[in-house]
Write a structure and sequence with these properties.
The structure is a single chain. With 289 residues, the protein is of the alpha/beta class. Helix content is 42%, strand content 22%. The chain is elongated. The structure holds S-adenosylmethionine. The site of S-adenosylmethionine has 23 residues, from helix 7, strand 6 and helix 11.
């Protein structure tokens, strides 16, 4: 551990606040690399004569912050990890930084199924860091997960996270194109969840450099209208889902209507849009008849 005075730390934070940089990113850096949470900091303010223990030396911490601001590199990639729901996930630039708005997908899945379903098999298509699949098995001990991704390096990160967070072997990982590696589970899957790449071309081209230059294009870009992966996932779903099985998709704010039409076309009922906490129609669900 490395000690500095609380005063020294606060002066640095004050300078960063003055330069109107994103202070939440700084708190995240302090937490993930320095080992000081936001609530630790608020307690410290009461007596700023105290000493503070950091997990890395102050100079290195400052260098990490400069790397973040100079290159617009997300703090999560600099630290190699991030929080999502109740867990800390390891990350690399092979995987998308799991977004806070996606957290709701875990609740949607649990609400749809209820807490007492015993032998449920679910698929997390495009698992990335494994955040959705891992949260689902930890929160629903009887569920068995099948997690797929086209990117083998992303799958390695997901497998590492699974090992770190959950000691049970309740997720199997598969590399391949959406449903393709799950051929042996045809007609057996009760629930499928996907946060696929859904950003349309014109939006992708205008993404901030912190996203476009660092996060994998494969994880974001959904073709001209953003729907190319979603179309593939929906059209192949009937082969893999049980009758009465659910599909839950995250989507771009303006895609719900088209996705609902697609779901109905491919044999789904109970089709609806679910708003996120900002009132945006971010999720679309349907049940295979
Ligand atoms: C938006 S990210 C979602 C990652 C993670 N599920 C999350 O919510 O943070 C989409 C993921 O889909 C994967 N992917 C892209 N194309 C794919 C394909 N054709 N088949 C399977 N996975 C794919 C990407 O590698 C990426 O990990």
């Amino acid at each position: 551990m490395y000690e500095i005075s609380a005063k020294e730390l606060f002066l640095w934070i004050r300078d960063i606040k003055k330069s109107s940089q994103d202070i939440d990113d700084l708190y995240l850096l302090l937490d993930l690399m320095g080992g000081i949470s936001k609530s630790d900091l608020f307690l410290l303010k009461i007596n700023s004569l105290e000493k503070v223990s950091l997990k890395i030396n102050f100079h290195s911490l400052k260098k990490k912050w400069i790397e973040h601001t100079k290159l617009s590199k997300p703090i999560q990639y600099i630290c190699g990890c991030s929080y999502w729901r109740n867990f800390k996930f390891e990350l690399s630039t092979d995987v998308l930084i799991p977004r806070v708005e996606t957290e709701q997908i875990v609740e949607i899945a649990t609400d749809i199924i209820g807490l007492d379903d015993n032998k449920l098999i679910f698929a997390d298509l495009g698992t990335g860091s494994g955040s959705i699949a891992i949260s689902l098995v930890v929160e629903n001990r009887n569920w068995k997960g099948l997690a797929t991704d086209i990117n083998i390096d992303a799958l390695h990160i997901a497998q590492k996270n699974h090992k770190n967070i959950c000691s049970e072997s309740n997720i199997k990982f598969f590399c391949g194109n959406w449903w393709e590696p799950l051929i042996h589970y045809s007609g057996m899957i009760n629930l499928a969840i996907s946060n696929p790449p859904y950003i349309p071309r014109n939006v992708y081209e205008r993404l901030p450099s912190s996203v476009k230059d660092f996060e994998p294009k494969k994880a974001l870009y959904g073709g001209e209208d953003g729907l190319s992966h979603i179309k593939q996932i929906i059209s192949e779903a009937p082969k893999f889902l049980v009758r009465g099985g659910w599909l839950i998709l995250e989507n771009h704010f303006d895609q719900s209507k088209k996705i609902k039409d697609l779901l109905r076309k491919f044999g789904f009922d109970s089709v609806k849009t679910i708003n996120d906490t900002f009132g945006i129609g971010r999720f679309t669900i349907g049940r295979y008849k």
